[in-house]
Write a structure and sequence with these properties.
Blueprint: E1 3-8, E2 14-18, E3 23-27, E4 33-38, E5 50-55, E6 61-65, E7 70-74, E8 80-85, E9 95-99, E10 105-109, E11 114-118, E12 124-128, E13 134-139, E14 145-149, E15 154-158
Antiparallel strand pairs: 1-2, 2-3, 3-4, 5-6, 6-7, 7-8, 9-10, 10-11, 11-12, 13-14, 14-15
Length: 171
């Protein structure tokens, strides 16, 4: 097992991203092995270069793959819900993942210093390209995003504002 990321759901279950076999190991709240999800492959529910994992507010899993260059959202049983491409290069480095209560998904690429914010369907809500080896991301209670930067040795806070729509003429 090559554990590259760890996540826990609200019930205490643990999810370990195993890069060696491109699978997710599921453990119960006491740490006992329950099952594994995925495995090497290109199809939905399988992984290539598993490098990040997070749990969502309703028990879903969100994974990020470096070689497969995608984000996948799986239900609590491990069945695929949706997937979208992620503009990363194969190689080494973490892909930190976080999901907030409104189901926004943040992915940070340690290798390129880039950060993306997506909605549940994979639509891009925001991005940054100036980070110093982001290794961990988490949403704060106020909805802002905290990013731990390894090279700079700091934690930064970002607030992504909702996209503004144009006001129709005459209003």
């Amino acid at each position: 097992v090559d554990p590259v990321a760890l996540a826990a759901d609200r019930g205490g279950a643990l999810y370990v991203a195993d890069a060696d076999r491109d699978r997710v190991l599921v453990l119960d709240f006491s740490g006992r092995y329950v099952r594994s999800l995925g495995g090497f492959g290109v199809g939905a529910g399988s992984f290539r270069g598993l490098a990040g994992i997070a749990t969502g507010p309703r028990g879903e899993l969100v994974t990020a793959e470096r070689t497969g260059a995608r984000v996948q959202r799986l239900d609590a049983a491990g069945s695929p819900l949706t997937a979208w491409p992620l503009p990363v290069r194969p190689g080494r480095g973490r892909l930190a993942v976080a999901v907030d209560d409104s189901a926004r998904i943040a992915v940070a690429d340690e290798a390129s210093g880039r950060l993306w914010l997506f909605d549940l369907a994979g639509r891009l809500l925001g991005a940054r390209a100036d980070l110093a080896s982001p290794r961990a991301v988490v949403f704060a209670p106020d909805g802002s995003l905290l990013v731990a930067e390894g090279t700079a040795g700091r934690v930064r806070r970002f607030a992504f504002e909702p996209a503004r729509t144009a006001t129709p003429p005459g209003r």
